[in-house]
Amino acid sequence: MPVNIPRDLPARAILEGEGIFVMSDERARSQDIRPMRIAILNLMPTKEATETQLLRVLGSTPLQVEVTLLHMASHSSRNTAPEHLEAFYATFADIADQYFDGLIVTGAPIERLNFEDVDYWPEMTQILDWSREHVYSTIHICWGAQAALYRHYGVPKYELPRKLFGVFDHQVLRPESALLRGFDERFHAPHSRHTDIHAADIEATGQVDLLAVSADAGVLLAATPDLRQVFVTGHPEYDRDTLAREYRRDVETGQPIDVPAHYYPGDDPAAEPIVNWRSHGVLLYANWLNHCVYQRVPFESQNSAP
In this chain's numbering, which residues are marked as the site (Important for acyl-CoA specificity) (predicted)? Predict the structure, then answer.
């Protein structure tokens, strides 16, 4: 089944070219099916790229998904045209009285800032608190995961001596978790961040389970036992060239950066990266939509409290 997005959203043409089934509001309304209402709080500066990555994995599931894109009203985006935000995005104030089946909170390249020093932190905390009553299950990515763990459970983050950057091997700790249904015992996922969270701090909460970790990259996946709060410290949704574009950007601007680990064949930046994480990335979001949202939310609760 398709992901329902605005007809003129730039991601639409890209996804259709890849064979991802997308549809407009008009066609969606003609189908007698309850779509999953999913909001995406997009904190990334390159919003169009992030939209496409997330819509791709959502559109690869067998469920119809109705997407609402959100941006921060308290922050001015310098990398996304105001016309794009005006046409396709809502703010928290626009949807504060609504209920959603799922919410995706993206990362943001601000890990080195203290949470309280982020200009939109007051709005961020308001949304995170709202999500616990108005969203059935929320999946938080990278900085979004760190922010939510800090806000909800007091889990701190730690600055790394060098950026964690590359594609890393991970081990499944709880194969019985619905989020990991169908996963291999070991799998790959990209990471790109300057800060870390520690497994011991998560375990000390007594309220969040560790689901997948890496010997080199630390915690990748954690969740509350009821799977209503999911935390992903890496980027299973990344495209083939996302790490390459980040690497070239940092090289061109003179920032200290290592070649992304286990990404280029022979660690040669001139070579084309080999994608070895996509199937598990798609499976993670499919499991989240199906087992954490669709199978648990009754049909009639679409517009009422979860």
Answer: 111
